[in-house]
Write a structure and sequence with these properties.
mainly alpha
Length: 320
């Protein structure tokens, strides 16, 4: 199979995965927004604003460097696993013990236990990081369907069930833990590679020299996409953040998912033609053309129909 065929097949399978995940998430969120309060969504956003920042440092860009790397990657994969797990332990401890300060910053006592429980996700996700990277590297997106879709379905079932039992924000917390556990377990099921707990300094240096640029861009992206939530949660309250976060999610859902489908496939695909600059340039602009043709009309439609959509689907409680 040629690279073009692999990339096309990858786009198809990532599209299937993204469509199913989006469908599950939309149905789940619709039901949850009927059962939970805006403040519940605000609290979970507060917690994840901090945890997502820490998770960027979990593998220091090594996973992307592993996808980019050519040739025999066994030593690199083992080194990435060891580094990822070591850093994850440190980040878990930072998240766990900084939880009281985060709660003080947001002026929310409820946030303390939420932060400490959700910080466990840093460790759980680290266990499957390399396996998921190897699937992406090999453009094995059909095999990636299992760890992509099943956890999201489980998340929805758990969150909805607990919300109906009156568990409030803990419905979202426990469902997130279930999602992480299943993603990691299923990643180990579909990938035959197993870590040998070996660390190679030269491999680590080479991976870091590439990965640091990914880490740097990740920090900038985090600042761009999270500073608004950080300030809204601090200056206003969890209810305001719940409204804002839900609106942001809905407004960006169609256009973001179009770009995400393509982006997941193109990075490993581009890495395979990294030495042919002309081919990369042509592929990049062709991709931008097709993504724009899809995402711009969808974004305009979202603006036009926002008010009737919210009033009809979510009701007056979510009008703000």
């Amino acid at each position: 199979m040629t690279l073009r065929q692999k990339a096309t097949a990858g786009v198809f399978w990532v599209g299937v995965s993204t469509a199913l995940k989006s469908l599950f998430r939309m149905i789940t969120r619709f039901i949850l927004q009927r059962n939970l309060l805006p403040a519940d969504f605000g609290l979970i956003t507060m917690a994840y604003t901090v945890i997502d920042f820490l998770r960027m440092f979990r593998e220091m860009g090594f996973s992307y460097a592993l996808i980019y790397r050519k040739g025999d990657i066994r030593k690199a994969a083992d080194t990435t696993f060891v580094v990822t797990m070591a850093i994850a332990v440190v980040l878990f401890l930072i998240a766990f013990f900084s939880a009281p300060y985060v709660a003080v910053f947001y002026r929310s006592k409820e946030l303390l236990p939420l932060m400490r429980v959700l910080s466990v996700n840093i460790l759980i996700a680290a266990l499957g990081e390399v396996q998921l990277s190897l699937l992406a590297k090999n453009l094995a997106f059909r095999e990636k369907l299992l760890p992509d879709i099943v956890p999201k379905l489980a998340y929805g079932l758990v969150a909805i069930s607990l919300s109906l039992m009156g568990k409030g924000v803990w419905s979202l917390v426990i469902a997130n833990i279930v999602d992480s556990v299943l993603t990691t377990v299923l990643a180990w099921v579909v990938v035959s590679w197993r870590p040998k707990f070996r660390f190679y300094r030269q491999e680590a240096e080479e991976l870091f020299n590439y990965g640091r640029h990914i880490l740097g861009s990740g920090i900038l992206i985090w600042l761009i996409t999270n500073l608004d939530s950080l300030f809204i949660g601090r200056v206003l309250n969890e209810e305001s953040l719940g409204y804002y976060g839900s609106a942001y999610y809905l407004a960006n859902l169609p256009a973001t998912h179009i770009s995400r489908v393509v982006g997941q496939v193109l990075f490993p695909a581009y890495s395979k033609i990294q030495d042919d600059v002309a081919a990369m340039r042509a592929a990049f602009f062709q991709t931008m053309h097709y993504v724009s043709l899809l995402s711009v009309p969808v974004a305009v439609g979202t603006i036009v129909f926002a008010a009737p959509f919210i009033d009809t689907v979510y009701g007056s409680r979510w009008a703000p």
